[in-house]
UniProtKB/TrEMBL annotation:
It holds the Pfam family FG-GAP_3. SUPFAM superfamilies: Integrin alpha N-terminal domain (SSF69318). The lineage of its organism: Bacteria, Pseudomonadati, Planctomycetota, Planctomycetia, Gemmatales. Keywords: Signal. This is FG-GAP repeat protein. Coiled coil: none annotated. The keyword Hydrolase does not apply. It comes from Urbifossiella limnaea.
Amino acid sequence: MPTHVPGPTGARSRLGRLARLPHRVRLEVWQLEDRVVPATAGFVEGPDGTLFPVPSEATSLPAGALGLPFLALAPQGEAPPVVRFNNPQTGIRMFPFVPFAPDFLGGVRPAAADVTGDGVPDFVVGVGPGGGSEVRVYDGASGAQAAGPLGSFQAFEAGFTGGVSVAAADVNRDGFADVIVAAGTGGGPRVRVLSGADGAVLADFFAADETLRFGLVVAAADVNRDGAADIITATGAGGVAEVTVFSGLDRSRLAGFLAFEPDFTLGVSLAAADVTGDGAADVLVGAGRGGSPRVRVFDGASGSVVKDFYAFESSFRGGANVAGIDTDGEGLAEIVTGAGPGGGSRVRVLDATTLAERISFAAYTAPFDNTGVVVAGR
């Protein structure tokens, strides 16, 4: 489990490996708005022997950095857990962050919301497959790992290694965003909700037949306009892509529908935000790995399809990761898409009404550039 940072003699970071592997080493440079800052880097060996540079001084967030709008861009898998924070209006890189041990290669599942209740968004991260079910919360104001039980915890039993999907939103109207966790690859359709106020378990339930083993992805936002965030789940890869909306207050079922055609079983990415401007959160889905980069948006109030489009070229088969983020502060979320594996780490911010491209950029450079990009932000 990614619970420690290996020392300089760790198996994946020995400098002796550099001399024996035919990969070029380069200095990673980060542009912080109007200045350029070089970041020192260690190296982690990927599954195929590729050496990934990992910033060695990026194990906490810069204090106060999340008080500004941001996109958090995380590797989908098969790469070290280097999260990149970018300006959502320009695409310019702001800073890197390594929330788990550098030699963990299972991917990062990010979310952002005000868990601590101080008015500053906090950063929630869960591990992908192979990392157990660890979740960490980083305080957006201080940059440090949050105090208390939500700072770091295993969401499920110790024997589960399929990773998690995470979301964060206030489901009980107490002013603290709560942490919502669903079991990942190979897990049952189990969802747990932990209080942002004190870490207490607010809910622990199965979103579908508990014998299924496809895992879930999860999102959260206020779909029914009752002031409490609702919980949205979708079946993982291998199962029919069924989306279900549950009341955040009492977990009653509010809606259910298929993300795509009944024979689509490649899994989906999932997000929720108001992209239509009616005050109700809408549900965004993107086709999973192996599928085309098709994205659909379902109206939160009626459940009808309001958008159905390809985020990238229709022939691409890495899927599309989705997020709904108000990147310009005008009160309406934009649709943000990240290319799945093999897609050159492309990120696009689209106008939710016209689908016109606001900005596009590559989240990563080689060798991270084809690992897939998972997107979160505020």
